[in-house]
Design brief:
With 480 residues, the protein is an alpha+beta fold. 26% of the residues lie in helices and 15% in strands. It is globular, with a radius of gyration of 23 Å. The protein binds heme C (HEC) (2 copies).
């Protein structure tokens, strides 16, 4: 039933832009035109059913789904602005104020540029960023699991307020190790080593400290992720047991808003929702009704400057709902070059290497209603066939990727399978190809060669492939 409007949009677009004609008025109701090829979109191309968009530009992650119209579109734009606009420290500016006193980024978009993952300041600046944001989150905890009273869980390495110091600064150095494929081709893995300098208060001895550094996740398929069928996920977790390949995934369960449930978002599936309130509070230092206290409240340096909770609430619930709606309504970019023989060969290699046992190609969203917290119905997210290339489960990825940081059920070595949809457009959207939870992999080959633990069998099958199959597999990943 959504074929019609899409088809109309295609005609409008192509009358002026290209010579491809849209005279095929016999396109059946339920078919969608791929405006990149001018043909009816195929099953493989439709990454997220009717939410699929056709773009290879830097806005490929940041474009509304085709069904976002009228009033929904206004709310989407409102959310997009609140997401991207640089916040300022001024506490009298209720619209764009509230940044800090300490923070990590000055807008959601500072880390998630164009709804993607901003190039890492780890690589460009050797750690914390110097331009008012770091495009990463630095989690710290005591090795014995104890909470760091003076810091909280995130090290806020930026400040915008005179007299307040950043909580500390992150430095990273890399050691490099070369590896070789059997045919002699070389690759290199960079292992990060972190230290924290310029602690604002008492520092912890390195041997007592756990530091986990995370680069941002792309916002591809946020609405679909929230519309996942939890029964299907539970079935997937029960089925995800392939002893012959050493693979068995499991769900993370966490408590959110006082309710225990399945975690889907975040690198360890440590959240049930799209973390809007937490993002504003913990990443930006913008207080809200769910997190009414400044993140640095209780710190000496805060108490000297301000009386208790002087700042009040710095973003309204309505504004946060608009941001939540914006992320739910983003379109998912269609796959490209699906018929290219090399891409097809790469797809076969993907299956041969058992990548699909974790990076599940196809899931479906639940059939029941998808409704936002404020009651907004998004019926278009229900009942869709989607190609996220993830099982949203946790897997033991081995000692090299162990960050010793526990989140809910997830141990240090466990990570959620990163959804691969849209990953081939990362370079076009964000101008880099840094991957894995801390951005240590600089390209697809390195990302694959970092797979350990349950991913080791895959990695070894890949290692032993002929070069043309390895190249084809990368081509396939670029088509996602
Ligand atoms: C300082 C950088 C930074 C800022 C600012 C930031 N994020 Fe993030 N975001 C991250 C990182 C890093 C992750 C991955 C963290 C993890 O899972 O451990 C992430 C993950 C997410 C995810 C999970 C995506 C998925 O696929 O599961 C969502 C949703 C999200 N952020 C939304 C937001 C929103 C909304 C804002 C603004 C209120 C925001 N972020 C601000 C760095 C940032
Ligand atoms: C045992 C499950 C498992 C298998 C098998 C597996 N992966 Fe992964 N993959 C993961 C997990 C978990 C991550 C996230 C690791 C991290 O962030 O440190 C990941 C991350 C990735 C990434 C980086 C994504 C990003 O945005 O950072 C790529 C690319 C990737 N996998 C491709 C592959 C390919 C290709 C294969 C087959 C050769 C494969 N994976 C096999 C679980 C798996």
């Amino acid at each position: 039933m959504y074929g019609k409007p899409v088809q109309k949009a295609c005609c409008i677009a192509f009358v002026s832009i290209s010579l491809i004609s849209c005279q095929e008025t016999d396109v059946p109701e339920n078919q969608i035109i791929n405006t990149l090829t001018g043909k009816v979109a195929t099953y493989e191309e439709l990454s997220a059913g009717t939410a699929t968009i056709f773009s290879t530009s830097k806005f490929a992650y940041d474009t509304e789904a085709p069904w976002v119209k009228d009033n929904l579109y206004s709310r989407f734009l409102e959310g997009d602005l609140l997401y991207d606009d640089r916040r300022v420290p001024d506490m009298n500016d209720f619209n764009m104020g509230g940044l800090g006193p300490v923070y990590a980024g000055f807008s959601c978009g500072s880390c998630h540029n164009n709804a993607g993952a901003t190039a890492s300041t780890l690589w460009s600046e050797g750690g914390s960023g110097s331009n008012g944001f770091s495009s990463c989150l630095i989690y710290i905890t005591r090795k014995d699991g104890g909470y760091m009273r003076n810091y909280g869980r995130v090290l806020h390495d930026q400040t915008a307020i005179y007299g307040v110091k950043p909580e500390g600064k992150l430095k990273v150095t890399y050691t490099y190790e070369k590896g070789y494929f059997p045919d002699g081709e070389e690759y290199e893995l960079a292992t990060p080593h972190y230290t924290i300098t310029e602690w604002y208060a008492d520092s912890l001895k390195p041997e007592d400290l756990v530091i986990s550094v995370r680069t941002p996740l792309r916002h591809v398929g946020m609405g679909q992720m929230m519309a996942l069928d939890h029964l299907q996920l539970e079935r997937l977790a029960a089925q995800s047991n392939y002893p012959e390949y050493g693979i068995s995934g499991r769900l993370n369960y966490i408590s959110e808003r006082g309710v225990m449930g399945i975690g889907v978002s975040g690198r360890k599936a440590q959240h049930q929702d799209l973390t809007v309130e937490l993002g504003f509070s913990s990443d930006l230092g913008v207080t809200n009704d769910r997190y009414p206290e400044e993140v640095c409240q209780g710190q000496e340096q805060y108490n000297q400057l301000y009386t208790h909770n002087q700042h009040g609430i710095q973003i309204s619930t309505e504004d946060m709902e608009a941001v939540d709606l914006y992320m739910h309504c983003l379109g998912v970019p269609a796959r490209r070059n699906v018929d290219d023989p090399e891409v097809k060969r790469g797809e076969e290699a993907f299956y041969a290497a058992k990548c699909h046992l974790c990076h599940t190609p196809t899931l479906h969203t639940r059939t029941s209603r998808v409704t936002l917290l404020n009651g907004t119905d998004l019926p278009w997210l229900s009942g869709q066939i989607i190609h996220p290339y993830s099982d949203y489960l946790l897997h033991d990825m081995g000692p090299e990727l162990n960050d010793a940081y526990v989140s809910g059920l997830a141990a240090g070595y466990e990570w959620r399978t990163t959804p691969l949809w849209g990953i081939g457009l990362l370079d076009a959207v964000n101008g880099h190809t840094q991957m894995m939870h801390d951005g240590r992999a600089r390209n697809f080959i390195e990302a694959i060669m970092w797979h350990g633990g349950e991913g080791a069998v895959s990695r070894e099958i890949f290692r032993k492939m002929e070069k043309k199959d390895r190249d084809a597999l990368v081509k396939f990943l670029q088509s996602l």
